[in-house]
Design brief:
- There is one protein chain.
- This protein is α/β, with parallel strands linked by helices.
- About 50% of the residues lie in helices and about 10% in strands.
- The chain contains 15 helices and eight strands.
- The strands form two sheets. The chain has a four-stranded parallel β-sheet with strand order 2-1-3-4, sandwiched between helices.
- α2 packs across α9 and α11 packs across α15.
- The protein is globular and about 60 Å long.
């Protein structure tokens, strides 16, 4: 990448800020421990859940690891890993990290961005040990976040097309993935390994198959795996762990489900729901907890941090790097249902199909405060759900835990209306 390819220069660069809140790390850890305690109270859990909990709570401190911090599900993990690096998703859901991030960004800004920046400032966090960062141009907050991060480490902003028309934009997007490869080669001092890229695609497709099968079994018996455990299982695969190690553990869960599926189901039927909307990131499982504890089951979702994030495989010709990059572009960009694109047709179709396929009684929309893209989609979501006679609950919240009981009241009232419809 020459000077003309630089996205950020140092003319107006700033010295990296250091954390001034000395107790923040303890509060961040306390939130994690509290969430682990709540998860331990779930009655039925796969026996190897401690493995996934460990991945989410104990970051690898090996000094020789090359880490690439990414902030979105549309960044191609396989490509990054083909350089012998480890892609680590850094989006943060910890409410205790928000005040730390506000030392850099104050005002009405997305809490995901604030918390993610807060973790960067936290000593010994995985974010602070990354060699480079990669972000997409998926929203205004991430665009400006990239410039802030460039004061700390080299940053690559992955330019996304405005619409998911592969005939128009596939070549452009594949070339953008190629630019990312050039950036990684320059700043990591490594070369792309074609054989390793093929293996990473193979392992990622293996993860997709396993999670699809888990999803399929869980639709019939959601009592066997809590939605909170499912989100943890999925999100743990983006912690930098090699999928060659993660996949066997996930397959153990699939085997366990296959054995337990014939066990007696609970006599009391719980209301089945579909979850859509903004991402829910560890350890802020507040909305998931409230919904489950209120007597309902989220049987599927369209979130980029849930089962949807791993649902699409990379398919196509693996004879050359060029074609593998096109395959990854189709997987990560043109199969995505992110609200950053101009049309939400794909997401709406997915929600409608999931309601029918899973016999769900309603949809819960997670509306994260200050996420403008999700807010702008809510109008059409409400109207289309109404046209299809699908009840919808709009849950507007942020990272604060103070509104938990208020959310519980709203969810319970929604479930009551669904029961009345059934009767």
């Amino acid at each position: 990448m020459g000077k003309s390819d630089l996205q950020f220069d140092s003319v107006h660069g700033l010295p990296p800020r250091q954390q001034t809140n000395t107790n923040a790390g303890k509060r961040i850890d306390a939130v994690v421990q509290d969430q682990l305690k709540r998860l331990s109270q779930i009655k039925v859990r796969p026996p190897n859940m401690p493995y996934f909990e460990q991945l989410m709570t104990e970051s690898d401190n090996s000094p020789d690891k090359v880490r690439v911090g990414i902030y979105c599900n549309m960044i191609p993990y396989e490509l990054i890993n083909s350089f012998g690096a480890r892609a680590v998703r850094l989006g943060c859901g910890n409410p205790a990290a928000v005040p730390v991030g506000e030392e850099i960004i104050s005002g009405d800004v997305c809490p995901v961005v604030k918390a993610s920046l807060g973790m960067l400032l936290t000593p010994n966090s995985i974010a602070s040990r990354c060699n480079v960062f990669v972000l997409p141009t998926s929203c205004d907050a991430k665009k400006k976040m990239g410039e802030i991060l460039s004061d700390y480490k080299p940053v690559f902003m992955l330019n996304l097309p405005p619409e998911q028309n592969a005939n128009l934009y596939l070549d452009q997007t594949a070339k953008e993935f190629g630019r990312l490869a050039e950036f990684l080669a320059k700043h990591l001092g490594r070369k792309l390994d074609k054989g390793l890229l093929k293996e990473e695609i193979k392992q990622a497709n293996r993860r997709t198959f396993t999670l699809r099968e888990i999803h399929k079994l869980r639709i019939s018996r959601p009592d066997l795996i809590s939605i909170r455990d499912l989100f943890m299982i999925v999100q743990s695969s983006f912690t930098g762990v090699p999928l060659s190690k993660w996949n066997p553990e996930a397959e153990k869960i699939l085997d366990w489900l296959g054995r337990e599926i014939s066990s007696p189901a609970p006599k009391r039927k719980r209301t089945r729901l579909i979850l859509t909307g903004a991402p829910i990131l560890w350890p802020n499982f507040k909305v998931l907890s409230v919904i489950e504890e209120s007597g309902s089951d989220i049987v599927s979702d369209t979130l980029c941090t849930g089962i949807q994030s791993c649902f699409d495989p990379a398919v196509g010709d693996e004879s050359s790097v060029k074609y593998m990059l096109r395959s990854l572009a189709m997987k990560y960009v043109f199969a995505s249902i992110c609200p950053s694109f101009i049309s939400q047709t794909s997401k709406l179709n997915r929600i409608i199909d999931l309601v029918a396929e899973t016999s769900s009684k309603g949809v819960v929309n997670h509306a994260l405060r200050l996420c403008q893209l999700c807010d702008l989609e809510n109008y059409r979501l409400r109207q289309i759900m109404k046209q299809h006679h699908i009840p919808l609950l709009d849950v507007r919240t942020d990272y604060s835990l103070e509104d938990t009981e208020q959310l519980r009241i709203r969810v319970e009232a929604f479930l009551e209306t669904l029961e009345e419809r059934i009767q």
